[in-house]
Amino acid sequence: MTTQFLTLYVLFWPLVATCILFTLCTAVYRDTQEAKANGEDLV
Fold first, then answer.
1. Residue 39, by phi and psi: left (phi above 0), alpha (psi -120 to 50) or beta?
2. Which residue, among 31, 12, 8, 10, has the nearest Cα to 20 in the 3D structure?
3. How far apart are CA 27 and CA 29, in angstroms?
4. Taking the CB of residue 35, how many other CB atoms lie within 10 A of it?
């Protein structure tokens, strides 16, 4: 394995985890706003 390949491989996983976390937070925010608009509880 080359050093560049290993570096890109190591840096790839935090990028994936960040994207997943961003997607989850966005979905929770939208659900919260929708529940507020409808006068409902989030749970």
1. left
2. 12
3. 5
4. 13
What is the distance between the alpha carbons of residues 36 and 19, in angstroms, rounded to a whole number?
26
Mind listing the pLDDT tens digit for each residue in 2-37?
A: 999 898 889 899 999 999 999 999 999 999 999 999
Judge whether 35 and 42 are in contact, CB under 8 Å: yes
What are 43's two structure tokens?
Answer: 């749970």
DSSP letter, residue 42: -
Q: Which residue has better confidence, 31 or 1?
A: 31
Burial of 12 (0-12, 13-18, 19+ CB in 10 A): exposed
